[in-house]
Amino acid sequence: MSRKYFGTDGIRGVANAKLTPELAFQLGQAAGRWLSSADSQSTARRIVVGRDTRRSGPMLEAALSAGFCSVGADVVSLGIAPTPLVSFAARTEDFVLGAIISASHNPAPDNGIKLVGHDGRKLPDAAELAIEQLMGAESSERPTGAKVGSITNSASSTEHYLKFLEAIVPERLEGMKVAVDGAHGAAYALGPEIVRRLGAEVVVTGDNPDGLNINAEGGATKPDTIQKLTVQSGCDVGVAFDGDADRAVFSDDKGRLINGDRTIGIWAVHQKKRGALDPTIAVGTVMSNGGFEAYLAWQGVTLERTPVGDKYVAAKITNMNARIGGEQSGHIIFPERGPTGDGLVTMLELLRVLKVENRPASSFYDDYEPWPQLLVNIEVADRNTWKDGSFVQATLARAEADLHGHGRLNVRASGTQPMLRVMVEADKYELRDRVAESIVSALETEAGGKVYSRVDLTHALGD
């Protein structure tokens, strides 16, 4: 059965239009009722809730929390909190559920609600479907009096999280100067705070949220801001978070982008050289750059690829018992630190490598040259029948043959839009562009395609 409300990352939509307080209230009621029937490790039905800095956040939190309370569940609000903080609290304290109100890297009018279990992981699809089936349903059982749920605020979970983060870098960071871009989002305060606690000098931007400027002026999806700030302020390294701080990207001291591929490469090779990468693998996606893969192989590390999506990366990490995995976007999972992406953990893991190796960030940049990579988004009438034509099939087969041993091709349909995403990567720009153009031409001719955008991913963030 398909899901009506939940997508790949919770419930998303324009706040007060698609994602209304009425819907949030129904979700709270339904999730609370689901908890009553689900097997739980705790007799206390306590739920931890955090939000990012969007203006709609308090409205949706109030509605969601009211829904929880109306079925007898107690809510502990962390206020403005990064997504990984809510996950941390859910798995380390006596909570049966965590709720995150955020639309991550999306613009301010959007918002979302994501639920995580007592293990800190996103609820499985079956659980989300079960909750959906309870939304809007009437119930004869309505608690009253002392059985109505309560709402309290707590700062203790945040302090526990900061202590957890501080322990990641026992060497501390004295002598380092770090630029931090909080994206006016959920980590606008905690990001700079943890770096200061560890002894570094900090230069900050994106730390003045007004409810409408989240992700607007910088952050992980607009890394130019942190790249310029790092150079202008003479910092050793810069870090930029996205709106909910589950991802981080970096600038070296020369203002060059250190995306997820490079971050994984720096960390994995550092661990491999010290005999601490067991097994000697790193997990990436089909978008991970071929130059990055070749560099890892040269260093004795195997790259295991998955489809795009953090749930696929997390599953592969578990199956392979890997110590790191992630995406070019900076969404990286260190399973020994937690089950999901955590931008603050990613920041500290990279800063620790720089500290231990006593090397500037720029000294790692030239360890490898990424292969030319191009992403072409093509609008099509039907994203399910685009490959049926003989001309398209023949062109794709010829492209695979041309790239054999010299690159990769990945063509996939968007999960939400009538659009194809064509990624072509080759060891030479000429080969990349020639192959990409042949595929675009075939899709335009036989599948009615129209180019929506072209993005050179060679030195960029990826999908």
Integer-rounded radius of gyration: 23 Å
CATH class of the largest domain: Alpha Beta
Low-pLDDT stretches are none
Strand content: 15-25%
CATH superfamily of the largest domain: Alpha-D-Glucose-1,6-Bisphosphate, subunit A, domain 3
CATH architecture of the largest domain: 3-Layer(aba) Sandwich
Q: Structural class of the secondary structure composition?
A: alpha/beta
- End-to-end Cα distance: 28 Å
Shape label: globular
| Major beta-sheet overview | 6 strands, mixed
The number of distinct structural domains comes to 3
Please count the helical segments: 14
CATH topology of the largest domain: Alpha-D-Glucose-1,6-Bisphosphate, Chain A, domain 3
Query: Widest sheet: strand order?
Result: 1-5-4-2-3-6
Q: Give the helix level as a range of percent.
A: 25-40%
Secondary structure: number of strands: 19
- Indicate the mean pLDDT: 93
